[in-house]
Amino acid sequence: MSSFALKMFLATMAVAVMTTAAVAQADLINFDLHPNPKFVSCLGVAGGPQPTAHVTVKRGKFADTLTIEGNNIRPHLAFDMFTVQRSALLSNGNADPNFTNFGLAWYQSDLQASALGHFKTTIKTILLDQIFGFDPDASLSPTNSFHVGFWFNDPNDANVNGCTFDITKPTPFNGEHKAGPVAMISVPDNHTNLGPLCTNPNTGTNPPSCNP
């Protein structure tokens, strides 16, 4: 093969690889959040349908748009939404027995249920395939947060209707760093163990990573 032909071949292969990567990245994704099994009874209305939360994310040129909509929530409950590194749930929605902590967390928005138990909120930021944080002072290298979840803003709201939460040990998931437990959160992919904000997984690494 001549030098020119070799260069043309390599250029063609490079374009093919980039095209494949571009096709693999979804421009619109939808996924559901799953309730924390320990706190379902205080998240919804007694005797009512199970609480639901659905997320839609649309890729943008400079930032992505996420819309989250919840239904069948106990009226007037307040929550705090974060993107986090890890989920407390398995891919089937059950509690992960090996869960230790959520890892890196980014505060994204407040949520508030109406008198009808509904909320809908939209945010615009970097989300799909690239959301990450780092902190040299803490020796934290660039770390992705591909999961979406929301926490009870008031710890007392997670200590009623059969739920048990130690309100003397709040979690840091609100502006005052005195929140309750996670109420609903996304689940990892069954094959890659990545959160749903990664649309283009790289299974050639161990563990799988995300192509930005």
Could you name the key traits of this structure?
212 residues, mainly beta, 8-stranded antiparallel beta sheet, two-stranded antiparallel sheet, globular
First CA to last CA: what distance? 34 Å
> Number of DSSP strands?
12
Percent strand equals 25-35%
How much helix is in the residues? 10-25%
Q: Which residue ranges are poorly predicted, with pLDDT under 50 across at least 5 consecutive positions?
A: 14-23
Topology:
Blueprint: H1 3-24, E1 28-35, H2 40-43, E2 52-58, E3 64-71, E4 78-84, E5 105-112, E6 119-125, E7 132-135, E8 140-144, E9 147-152, E10 182-185, E11 201-202, E12 209-210
Account of the 3D structure:
By secondary structure, the chain is mainly β. It is built from two helices and twelve strands, in the order αβαβββββββββββ. Strands 5-4-9-10-1-2-3-6 form an eight-stranded antiparallel sheet, with no helix packed on it. It has a two-stranded antiparallel ribbon with strand order 7-8. The chain has a two-stranded antiparallel ribbon with strand order 11-12.
What's a concise summary of this model?
The chain has 212 residues and is mostly beta strands. Helices cover 12% and strands 32% of the residues. The chain contains 2 helices and 12 strands; from the N terminus they run αβαβββββββββββ.
